[in-house]
Every structure is written in C-alpha cells, then in structure tokens.
Design goal:
There is one protein chain. By secondary structure, this protein is α/β, with parallel strands linked by helices. The chain has 3 domains: 97 residues; 113 residues, Pdz3 Domain (Roll); 164 residues, 2-enoyl-CoA Hydratase, Chain A, domain 1 (Alpha-Beta Complex). It is built from 13 helices and 16 strands. The strands form 4 sheets. The chain has a 6-stranded mixed sheet, sandwiched between helices. Helix 2 packs antiparallel against helix 3. The chain is globular. It starts with a helix and ends with a helix.
Amino acid sequence: MYKSFVNSLKNYQLMNKTLLALIIILFASCTIQKQYNDDWASDIDYLQKQLPKKHKNLFFKKSRGDFEKEIDSVKNQLSLFTDFEIAVKLQKLIAGFGDSHTNINWQKYIDKNKVLPLKTYWFKDGIYILKTTKKNKVLLGKKITSINEIDIKTIVKKISTIITVDNSATIRNSIPELLNSLQLLQFLNITSDNNPKIEFETTSGLKDTAEITIEPMTKQNTVTVIFKGIAFNYLHERNLFLEKYFDKEKIYYIQYNKCWSAELEQKYGNKSRVKNLPHFETFKNRILYILRNKPVEKLIFDMRFNSGGSSLQGKRLIEELAKIEKINQKGKLYVAIGRKTFSSAILNTIDFMELTNATLIGENTSGMPNHYGEVRHFNLPFSQLRVNYSTKYFNASENDIKTILPDIKIELSYSDFIKGIDPVFDWIKRN
C-alpha cells in the first residue's frame, strides 16, 4: 500500500514536471512568435512612413488610403505567413502602385533548395527550356505548356501580379526569371508539390509530361540545348558597349548594352571599379572615326539588352550621329529595341526618334517613355530588405504611351536562336 502511494506520488510529480516543461515551451514559442510579429510590424511601419515620404509621387495611380488599407491588411496577418510570403506580399502591394522602378528585393528569402533547375526564355513561339540538369534532360529544348495541369497562360497571369506591368514586354521579360521559384509557384497556388509535373511540347508538336527533380544546377550536372551557332549580339551581351565593322556587308554594328561607363562610375559609383570599365569617350571617338573613314552603308545601334543607367551619355553620341548626313537617313540608320530596353535606354530611343531619321526595329520596349526613375534605396530595419524608389519623373513624350513600338517588328523564334541567327541583323542585311 505504501509502495503504491509512493509510485503514485512520483507519477504525479513527473506529470507536473512534464506539464511545467510544456507550459515553458509554449510560453517561449509564443514569446518568439510575438517578437517575430513585432519585428516585421516595425518593418512595415517603417515602409508605411518612409516610402511615401521619399518617393517622388507614390500615389499617382492609387490613393494614400489604398496604401494604408493594404499595408494594414498585411500587418494584421503576419502570424499566418513565412518571411518569404511577407516579403512577396509587400512586393505585390508596391507593384500595384504602378512604378516599375519602385520595388522590394524579396529574393533574399528564396530558398536555394526550392529552385527548379530550369533556365527558360520566352521566344516568339513560347517559353522554352534552355538549360537544366542531367536528371531532367528530357525537358531540354521543350516548350512549357502547363505545370501540374495549370496552363502556362494562367501561370503567367498569376506571376504577373507581383511585378509592375507597364506592358506585355515587361511580362515577357520578367516571367522566365520568376518561373523557376517553387516557393513562388506554391505561394500563388500553382502547385503544392515539391516535385511538380511539367507538361511540355516538342518542336515537332508531340506532347508529354515529366516530374521535375529539384537539385542545384552546377557546372558538373548542367546540360544546355545544342546550338548550331551563336548570334553575335548574344556573344557580347555582358559587355557595356562594343562596336564592329562588317566588311562584306559594309554594316557598322554598335551594341549599347548599358548606359554606363568608366566615366560615370568615376562620377557616381565606386571609384575602385573604374579601372575595370571601358571609357565611353574613347568608344565614341572610335565610332566617329569609323563613320568618317569607312564605307558604311548601314549602321545598327542595338539597345535590345539595355536596361538603363544614365541617358545623357548616349544622347551626346546620338547628337553626333545626327550630324553625319551620309548615315542619318531612312534605310541606313537602324535602332534595335526589345523587351529589355528600359529606363534610360528608353530615353535614348526617344533621342533617336527626335533627332535622327532612324528606323526602329525589333520588339516593343518593356519600359514606358514617361516614367518615374532616378532610383535610390533604403533598407527595412529588421529584415534588411532593400526598397528601391523613384526620385524623379521623366516626361519624355507628349503622348502617354505604354511602350515604344518598333517600325519593323521582328521577334526571335526558338529555331533561329539555336541556329545562331539574329533575325534583326539578318533582316537589315537582306533589305
């Protein structure tokens, strides 16, 4: 009887200790969650106060009341979301206010273990897979038609809600960069699987499905589509700028990939990087020398990869080109534009339109002629997420158009790409 009583007492004490431990764990968990919510709430309060104050005119599309309401909606549901989801929700909120230069760098919270091993590009005939891993080789060179039975048009529409959509070119430029985020696909209810099924179509029209294996893409396991050639413009898309004279065709090709240079880095950037950058003044003098001393029948000024920088640099060159009568003529001067042509490159495109007789060729631009820009940034205090915002409005066109349309529209097909054909250069050469 006594032994039974002692055992019962021990069990009772053990139960009390267990209960106390559970209470302590629960209390600690609640405390941590509360601190987590408070930290994010302080970030959102900071964003709510600073962004309208710093932005040139945040409420040109939607009202301050809309902003306050949407901010509060996120703040009131913090306990329901992960860091990634909160960051994306804030980006989605800001995107709705219509300034494509103002955004939150939410990519900080991308989980590298939740990235689909796919590099894609949106061609004239669809979104094709250009790189993947050996385990997913069956997908290589295929056109994506759906993911987990959700068609690609619906997927594009869902992903587009987290970017500021100036026009259709913005979507075509942005979607391939976002399509491989499994977290984003799950957040947008496109898939709940960790190994989603990709429905695809071959170049001959055959359709099939494959479950994708998620793994990091490395030099050892990455496979790429087989190219029969690589177009000149793709060989040099990472250069700030370059020029080449094609003797046989008597075509002078200028590739202007960034409105930046050693001079601008010296003035506005990091002086230690100046020595690694090309000088624009040297580049400009070389161009003017060639035009005066070579039999140039056609000049191509290519800004298809140019996302901006400082427009004044390019404008000074364009003013010089406008003075050269033998080249400043219809059928002789071509400006190539496309979905990556944005910001200051848009302003330089307008310079060509106003100062020269250039023919625009290629695709629609992703940026708008009239836009907010001259970007600065601040960081949110807790998450350290970078918030980019505009400080100036550029009124470059009397007409409030959404994009610049080329005079001659030419889109790149998947077939031309793997053959190494640049259809823009090819058209100019043949015509």
